[in-house]
């Protein structure tokens, strides 16, 4: 039995279907199901288990910190990336600088959150080129002395375009601004080192390449920045001692933990703990190398059948997701599912987004089936 066969046995759906939708929802690992059932069993038999629930969420926080090379107290537990961005937007002081630069290929939630603060911030969208990419010069021309935050995605949800965060961070910081990264599409498929990349804020959920479920996310805040901020989106878990039940006083927790808010999404925390633990057992560089190989195979097959690729051709400039043009993408997604292929539609593309458990045969056969529907 080879290594890939062993890996695939942990994902029951792969015995019957080909799931290539990690840009939306990854396949369920057996350990995730077991973790969720552990929560449910405790609820069923014990009534409640605060100690066990907290332990699972705190361990998930630790595993996330390890994955991005952060300290545990630099990580907050939140409910979503929307929650994370809102927390930071509400906490910054726009007195001296008030411009927020957002790239137009970010997931819409980023734009929605910042625009809800238009009474405080000047919002500028950085438009990508026709091929859906940006370069460093684009940032240089748009970051100025009024820029407070540059908020962008590590990897685009639409076409998989991958940015060099380290070089962008250098430009952002030279202009005295903060750098906020949405890593939802990159966590679990490519190495992330917040220290080397020198990002100030980074947020990600778990349901995509991190193997988890929606309903929980994590927010990294660089330690020296966190201590300077006063959360405006808060709750009892953001306090130094939430179980003191002191309604009359606020004593924020140290570091990024002050951005914890209400009761953790416990059942989601069990799934997050399991997913992150699984991934931290692997070499992320090897996962990325495997996915680049699958990207090449996907694009070769698409070219063979004359399909239009909307993703960057250079695999070093893209993540797992290869976006293929389909005018009626949502309908095609449903038709593919009926044929046993789980892919993901966004706007006018079908996204073929394999993970470390997928094979070259998976992506080639999916493109072949897609080509039949596109005739």
UniProtKB/TrEMBL annotation:
The keyword Nuclease does not apply. Gene3D superfamilies: Aspartate Aminotransferase, domain 1, Type I PLP-dependent aspartate aminotransferase-like (Major domain). SUPFAM superfamilies: PLP-dependent transferases. One of its GO terms (cellular component) is cytoplasm. Residues 54-305 form the Aminotransferase class V domain. InterPro entries: Aminotrans_V_dom, Kynureninase, PyrdxlP-dep_Trfase, PyrdxlP-dep_Trfase_major, PyrdxlP-dep_Trfase_small. The keyword Transferase applies. Keywords: Aminotransferase, Hydrolase, Pyridine nucleotide biosynthesis, Pyridoxal phosphate, Transferase. GO terms for molecular function: kynureninase activity; pyridoxal phosphate binding; transaminase activity. One of its GO terms (biological process) is anthranilate metabolic process. Pfam families: Aminotran_5 (PF00266). Transmembrane segments: none annotated. PANTHER family: KYNURENINASE (PTHR14084). This is Aminotransferase. It comes from Pontibacillus marinus BH030004 = DSM 16465. The lineage of its organism: Bacteria, Bacillati, Bacillota, Bacilli, Bacillales.
């Amino acid at each position: 039995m080879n290594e890939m066969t062993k890996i695939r046995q942990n994902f029951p759906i792969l015995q019957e279907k080909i799931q290539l939708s990690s840009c939306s929802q990854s396949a369920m690992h057996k350990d995730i199901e077991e973790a969720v059932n552990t929560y449910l069993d405790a609820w069923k038999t014990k009534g409640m288990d605060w100690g066990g629930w907290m332990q699972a969420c705190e361990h998930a926080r630790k595993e996330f910190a390890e994955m991005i090379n952060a300290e545990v107290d630099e990580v907050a537990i939140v409910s979503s990336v929307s929650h994370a961005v809102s927390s930071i937007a509400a906490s910054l002081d726009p007195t001296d600088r008030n411009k927020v630069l957002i790239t137009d290929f970010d997931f819409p939630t980023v734009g929605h959150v910042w625009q809800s603060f238009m009474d405080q911030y000047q919002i500028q969208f950085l438009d990508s080129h026709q091929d859906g990419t940006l370069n460093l010069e684009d940032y240089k021309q748009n970051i100025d002395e009024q820029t407070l935050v540059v908020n962008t995605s590590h990897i685009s949800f639409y076409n998989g375009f991958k940015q060099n965060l380290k070089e962008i961070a250098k430009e952002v910081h030279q202009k005295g601004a903060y750098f906020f990264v949405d890593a939802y599409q990159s966590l679990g498929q490519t190495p992330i080192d917040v220290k080397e990349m020198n990002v100030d804020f980074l947020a990600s959920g778990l349901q995509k390449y991190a193997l988890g479920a929606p309903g929980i996310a994590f927010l990294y805040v660089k330690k020296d920045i966190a201590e300077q901020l006063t959360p405006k989106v808060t709750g009892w878990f953001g306090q130094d001692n939430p179980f003191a039940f002191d309604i009359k006083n606020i004593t924020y927790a140290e570091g990024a933990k002050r951005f914890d808010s209400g009761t953790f999404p416990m059942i989601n925390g069990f799934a997050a703990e399991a997913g992150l633990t699984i991934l931290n057992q692997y070499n992320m560089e090897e996962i990325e190398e495997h996915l680049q190989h699958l990207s090449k195979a996907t694009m070769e097959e698409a070219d063979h059948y004359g399909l239009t690729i909307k993703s960057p051709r250079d695999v070093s400039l893209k993540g797992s997701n290869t976006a293929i043009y389909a005018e009626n993408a949502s309908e095609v997604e449903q038709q593919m599912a009926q044929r046993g292929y789980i892919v993901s539609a966004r706007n006018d593309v079908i996204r073929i987004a394999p993970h470390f458990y997928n094979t070259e045969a998976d992506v080639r056969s999916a493109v072949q089936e897609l080509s039949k529907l596109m005739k």
